[in-house]
Amino acid sequence: MTSLYDEFRVALHSVWTRRWLVLAVAWGICILGWLAIASIPNRYDSRARLLVDVNEILPDDAQGGGGRPQLDQIRETLTSARNMEKVAATTGLLPAGANEREKAGAVAMLQKNIKVVPQQDNIFEITSSVAVGSLSDADNAKLASGVLDSLITVFRDDQLRGGRMNAREGLKFLDAQIADREKALREVEARRGAFEAQNIGLIPGGSGSPAQRVEAARAELGQIDSQLVSAQAQLAAANGQLSSTPATINIPGMGSVGGGVARQQLAGAQNELSSMRARGLTDAHPDVIALKSQIASLKAMADREGAGAGGGGNSQNPAYASLSAMRAERQATVSALSARKAQLTGDIARITSQQIQNPGIAAEYDRINGEYTAFKAQYDKLLAQREQVRMRGEVQTETDAIKIELLDPPSKPTSPAAPNRPLFLTLVLLAGIGGGVGAAFGLAQIRTSYATAAKLERASGLPVIGSITEVVTPERHLDRRKKLVWLASGGGALVGLYALLLVAEFIQRGMVA
C-alpha cells in the first residue's frame, strides 16, 4: 500500500513539474475542439401528423386498374423529387434561375432530411430536419417548420389536382387504344369476309372456326348419345308393359247386387294392376304381389256368382290406351334423337373431310378467327375499363377522392435537436485537461528522472548514501509565486472561456424561442 502511494506521489510530482505543458496542451485541445463544435450548425426538427383518408366510393372491381391508392405510394409521393423541388423553391432553399445541379442538390438534401413514418393505417408522422450552416439558428428553426408547411400544401394541391388529371389522361389513353382495336377489328372482319368469299364451299357455314365447330358438335353428340340410350330404354319398357296388357276387358252386367259388386271390384283391381305395370313396377314389388293376391280372391268370388249375375261385353282397356300413347311419345323422342345424331355425325364427317382435303385453307381460317377473337376480347375489355375510368372521374369531380387532414400542425422548434453542444463543450474541456496530464506523464516516462532516493537506488542497484534538499531563496520563492499566479490565471481563463461558451449557447437558444 505504501509503495502504491509512493508511486502516485511520484506520478503527481512528475506532472506538476511539467504543469506548463499540461496547461498548453489543454488549451490547444480545447481551442481545436471548441472550434470544431462551433463549425457544426445546430439542427432543428419540426414534426407534424397527417391523416390521409381514401374515400372508397366506387367498389374495388370498378377502379379501372387504378385501385385504392396504397399508403406506401402516398409516402413515396410525399417525398417525390417533384414535390421536393417545389418545396425548395417556395421556402427559398432554391434561388430563382438555379441550374439543374443546384436543383438536384436541394432535392437530395430535402429527401435526406425529411422522414415519413406511418403510425397507423392512414396516419403519417412527418419530420423535417434543417441544419444550414449559412443561416442563423432562428432562421433554421423557422425553415424547419416552413418546409413541412410547404410540403403539406404541395401534397394537398397535387392530390386535389392529380386525381382529376389522371382520370382525363386515362380516358384519353383508353380512347386511343379503343380506336386502334376497333380499326384492327374491322380489318380482320374484312379479311375474314374476303377469305370466305374466295373459298365458298370449302369452308363450312356457322360461327366459329372449323375446329371449334367440330368440338362443339362432338360435345353435343356425347350428350345426345346418353339421351338416346335413356330414351331407348324407356321405349323398351313401354313395349314390355304394353305387350302384357290386354287391349279389352270384360265388364259383366249388373245381374244381382252381390255378384255385380264382386265383378266390378275384380275389374277395378285388374285396372290398378295394369296401371302399376305401366309405371314400371315389376311382379316382385310388394304392392303388385298384394294386388295379385286380391285379384285371385276376387276371381274366386266372381266364379261363385255364376252366370246368372247378368250379361256382359268386352270394352277397351284404358290402361292399354294410356300405354299406347306413352309408347308413341317415346318412339317420337327416339326418332328425333336418332335424326339429330345422324345430322351431327354427318357434320363432323363433312368438316373433317374438308379439313383433310384443304388443310391450308382450314388453318388460315382458324388463324383469322383466332385473331378476330383476340381483338374482340381486347376491345370489349377496353370499353369496360373506359366506362369505369369515366365513372371514377365523375366521382372525383363531385367529391375528393383523398381527404387530407392535418392532425398536428408543424411544431415550432425552440431548441436544437442536435448537436448537444453543452455536453460536447464539457467533454472537450475534460479531454483537454486529460490530454495535458497524459502528455506530461508520458514525457516524464520518456525522460528518465528520479524523484526519490529509493527510486534511484532501485534503478541503479547501488546504495544511495543521502540526498540534498532544495534550498529555496526568497527571490526564488517570489518567482514561484508569480508563476503559480500565471498558471492559475491560465487555468482560470480556460474554465472562463468554457463558461462563456455555455452562456453564449443558452443565449442563442433563447433568441430562437
Automatic annotation (TrEMBL):
<keyword id="KW-0175">Coiled coil</keyword>
<feature type="transmembrane region" description="Helical">
    <location>
        <begin position="423"/>
        <end position="446"/>
    </location>
</feature>
<feature type="coiled-coil region">
    <location>
        <begin position="171"/>
        <end position="234"/>
    </location>
</feature>
<dbReference type="InterPro" id="IPR014345">
    <property type="entry name" value="XrtA_polysacc_chain"/>
</dbReference>
<keyword id="KW-0472">Membrane</keyword>
<protein>
    <submittedName>
        <fullName>Lipopolysaccharide biosynthesis protein</fullName>
    </submittedName>
</protein>
<feature type="transmembrane region" description="Helical">
    <location>
        <begin position="20"/>
        <end position="40"/>
    </location>
</feature>
<keyword id="KW-0812">Transmembrane</keyword>
<feature type="transmembrane region" description="Helical">
    <location>
        <begin position="484"/>
        <end position="507"/>
    </location>
</feature>
<dbReference type="InterPro" id="IPR050445">
    <property type="entry name" value="Bact_polysacc_biosynth/exp"/>
</dbReference>
<keyword id="KW-1133">Transmembrane helix</keyword>
